Fold:
Amino acid sequence: MTGLSASIEIADLRKVFRQTTSGQSVVAIDQLTLRIEPRELVAIVGQTGCGKSTLFDLLIGLEHPTAGSITIGKKTPYDDFNAFRGKIATIFQQDRLFPWRSALDNVKLPLELIGIAEDIRHERAMTWLKRLGLEKFANAYPRELSGGMRQRVAIARAFAVQPEILLADESFSALDEVTANELRKTFVELAREFNSTAILITHQLEEAMGVGDRIIVFGKSAALLADIRMSDWDRANYPQLREAIQNTLQANAPDPRLRK
Amino acid sequence: MPPDEVRSATPFEEPRRSLMMSGLPRETIISIVLFAVVWQVMSYLAPSLGIPAFAIPGLGRIAQSLSKITPLDVAITLGRVLLALVVSFAIGLLVAVLMYLSDSVEKYLRPMVRILMAVPVVSWILFAVLWFKGVEFRIVFVLVVVCAPVFTVDALDNMREVSRDLKQMIRSFRPTPLQFFHKLMLPAITPGLITSWKITLSLAIRVVTIAELVGAVTGIGHQLSVAQELFSVADVFAWTLVLVVLLFILEALLMQLETRVLRWRA
Structure:
């Protein structure tokens, strides 16, 4: 299908919403062109309402673009929706666990959807729970777990299908700083270990810099303000980079220091 | 690693009360006993107040009637109610799913469902008598036509209230339409469906009695009709008591099922 060598090609992407109350059009994404290479760990950072989450919905395939396209290995996630079954996994801001399922059964869910046999999915789900330090809580219901534990179950659920593409939307921003840092680290380790292409959408610059190999800065209507490869910057210059990205976000225009 | 805590259950959780006699609170038992005493006193005073003695029979006479209750009639009524509820639930849920899936279907069916719900039970009984020959079919028809719309409306409302976040989450994993309903919608609406069963159960018990009054030769409704022809208030009282107890038992069973099925809730 998509193959691990498939890149994500976003070409002249445009998404316009019509507000039901006023009837006015809102341009969420305007002419976005972007290429994400396989196995890249990309953090997309932008202010609230800049079109990040709309891009997330388009990448999942839950929305259709108004114009332009997203292609992954000659297929689009929205028109060829079922072709990506088991290939794309998501981690949302809230854990979005099924409250009627135990932690173990929540991790099993995507495996059930792709038709993995019960004995294999049980073993695989347990392996993931162990990996995330939750083996003792396999039979606990979400209400019995803390926010950090629930988010870890959500991470286990996403990785259980061994996805080629992993999409995370503000996945750690609702957690306390200590837990968030720990889960970010786990997220990066797992994405690298399983050679997944990972896209983390966030409004937190620190998070973007902590996770991404590449940071994409969005302005209004997902205008591409900066595309930064972290390998181009020495760690010693990170404070300047941080300041430059902050300036870019505030001015909604690229900081000159980012044109390198 | 931060020390995550497992949330403890609410420490002052109120124990679930069974509706069975053993679990009845003291206040309920006192009020029942009080009612029985007042009834007995009224039965004793009735002749002196100019009320015919048969109108308020004593507890002894009612106990006599209770001893003559025929279990077969109770079983027949229970069977009719359960059969009709299962059929109503299947039809109601199917129609709700169709309405949920298609706005056009919903626009056409919603007025029909509302109309069905507005028609009085007595009218349905008269229609059933005029339209159908078989007594059993008449009774089940009346029960289904009264109960199915309730299931439809409740199931549809519950489906609409399923969290958008959960829908988005499962859709991101690309389920088949059947998986979408089986893995998300059905478990999500189960609490609402159980509530709907509780409401419809008491509705069905009341409706079946009226339906059995017309034409049936078996069942509690028929026995009530016989008691009325014989001017036996004791028999009416006894059969009514059986109906009420039957309803309480069924509700208690439903509550047990609810506790079991919804153990994931706090």
In short: Chain B touches chain A at residues 1-2, 4-7, 9, 165-166, 168-176, 179, 183-184, 187-188, 190, 262, 264-266 (CB under 8 Å). The domain at 72-261 of chain B is CATH 1.10.3720.10 (MetI-like fold). Chain B has one domain: 72-261. The two ends of chain B are 28 Å apart (CA to CA).
